[in-house]
Amino acid sequence: MSAQIVARNLSFAHGPEVVLADVSLTVASGHRIGVVGPNGVGKSTLLRLLVGDLEPERGTVALVPADARVGHLTQELDVRAGETIADVIARRTGADMAQRELDASMRAMAAGDADAADRYSAALETWLHLGVADLDATMAETLERVGLGADRADQPAATLSGGERARVNLASVLLAGFDLLALDEPTNDLDLAGLALLEHFLVHSPAGFVLISHDRAFLERVVTSVVEIDEHARTATRYDGGWQAYLDARAAARRHAEEAFAGYVETRDNLRGQAQQTREWSAKGIGKVKRSGETDKFIRHWNKASSEKLAGKAARAEKALERLDVVDKPWEGWDLRLDFATTGRSGDEVVSLRDVVVDHGAGFTLGPVTLDIGYGERVALVGPNGSGKTTTFYAVAGLVTP
Ligand SMILES: Nc1ncnc2c1ncn2[C@@H]1O[C@H](COP(=O)(O)OP(=O)(O)OP(=O)(O)O)[C@@H](O)[C@H]1O
Ligand SMILES: [Mg+2]
Question: N or C, where is the chain less crowded by C-beta within 10 Å?
């Protein structure tokens, strides 16, 4: 169904720390909105406000129509103790809740509750919409589609690798049939095949999406507008027309801000210089008149008057300086920069693994792996999700015993 979330003038704080101030945003069917901003600026918080997981301190969030189905894919796949992959998917798609509500409403009907019939028909509609009856079959198919394998539904979820978790997340998104969906960094941990699948889904689904990502290439291919949260003002600005339009608008805004600041600095410095100079001249002039011993009253008067005129000019420059609208220096922006400490050279050969085998015990064995990395080499470790990249990394760092 066609749906929208309309958020108006949202403000939110964690204790004394203001996270978002006066943010308005509409997410509707067909929208693909990318949310960007530095770490900790409030992107996840904004999504939680939009889906109703948090209450704003000020402002409103309205869902139209009220029974539209809104999904929320959190930044981390939360796995609860003892859950299998199927349990996690049933929970995240809402299928388990739909089943429980259907059972409860049937019990209420049997007990003869007055409003049980309405409750049952609402529960049945959700249950049918979610396809809970065929969930086992569609789940197997979807697990295969996301590259996890059809037979893994009963595997414990706690032992999954980062990328495999991301794929479980992806499977729940594909299965759920939400009208509107908030995705918190869905690209994290996905390999190229997973990214392609997610991209295809987002671009072809009629639903509306608001998604956070730090993957520029992905955003460039997927989003139709960009919302940037400003670290200083705590507001959100929406740029329509895709990623490039956002970059262009941002560059233009920055150019304007720099020009405005340069203009302000020039005027301010001119006025300051003028005020200072004329004050000095005027003070000197008055002193000179006093010391000059000039006896002609008119010349004395004229000299004094011109010094006073200078003082008036200085006062006017000072006044203008006071009235000048201050333009703040544009701040540097939030492009990600990382600094790594440098250390002394350790040796020619930095890493040496010989026929290393790591057995995780849960059906996954890495190796044998042989790997040599010399000083100054930069090696990229690539491979599909679940193939053992992190385990190899641990072996290199000495965090697992072969
Ligand atoms: N439960 C909480 N209690 C107090 N402060 C919190 C809580 N959750 C988040 N914050 C703070 O709120 C701010 C916004 O957090 P949020 O998770 O929305 O950031 P983000 O933009 O999603 O960052 P990232 O890119 O790292 O995911 C941060 O300063 C964070 O430390
Ligand atoms: Mg976040």
Answer: N
